[in-house]
Amino acid sequence: MRRKLAAGNWKMHGLLADLSQISALNADHPDPATDILICPPTTLIVPACAAINGGAVQIGAQDCHARASGAFTGDLSAVMLKDAGATAVIVGHSERRDAHEESSEDVRAKSKAAHAAGLTAIICLGESLAQREAANTLDIIAGQLSISVPDTAVAANTVIAYEPCWAIGSGLTPTPAQIGEVHDFIRARLTTRFGEAEANGMRLLYGGSVKPGNAAEIFEVSNVDGALVGGASLKAEDFTPIINALK
Ligand code: PEP
């Protein structure tokens, strides 16, 4: 049985004062039925870990470099993120694929680095609106999946997040049938590549405009094991109903 996961991606939002949102989640869910992960900006990883003080909420990062150390000004390695207290790292988010021109090969290298450091890699995939309208969604997902996920992936260290680019921050969401088609496809591809035992253990998250009002309907969809949530994860009062919808 896969444990459900509610993961929040704070992107470039959050100052020290906002740690109160993480503390509130931690206090409200002392023994949650689902896993709860917040990926704040990197500056908040250490104080966020201190704020949860061994509680149930886990802290993750939003990106990592593919190398463990070196002359890479401004970058952070997976080893450093683990050292700071992170348990997971998002890789291949569409905002990184677009704005930083990260390829699926880059995402695979970063995922491998995350695995080597002992972090769970949350590997993001998703089609653009033009690709969906051209009926290319499954081809795009197949390509991104096969290249972005490294051979080091096992159920315990890998989460796949299906995030259609056109749904992120837009208020638009695919229909449940569209989400189900992609999630079932991802599960089948993972099974072919990694075998049933590992593939059945890997969690598949949906991401893109998940809100308190649509979470329950999305979580009914087959092979949806949780959500990667942007805007609605910033405030505990918005994220809590999403967490509760996963139960
Ligand atoms: C995201 O950033 O991964 C995301 C899904 O954002 P939002 O929930 O705001 O659409």
Automatic annotation (TrEMBL):
The active site is at H93 (electrophile), E163 (proton acceptor). Its EC number is 5.3.1.1. Its main location: cytoplasm. It comes from the Bacteria. GO terms for molecular function: triose-phosphate isomerase activity. Substrate binds at N9, W10, K11, G169, S209, G230, G231. It catalyses: L-erythrulose 1-phosphate = D-erythrulose 4-phosphate; D-glyceraldehyde 3-phosphate = dihydroxyacetone phosphate. The keyword Cytoplasm applies. InterPro entries: Aldolase_TIM, TIM_sf, TrioseP_Isoase_bac/euk, Triosephosphate_isomerase. The keyword Transit peptide does not apply. Pfam families: TIM. Belongs to the triosephosphate isomerase family. Involved in the gluconeogenesis. Catalyzes stereospecifically the conversion of dihydroxyacetone phosphate (DHAP) to D-glyceraldehyde-3-phosphate (G3P). Homodimer. This is Triosephosphate isomerase. It comes from Roseovarius pelagicus.
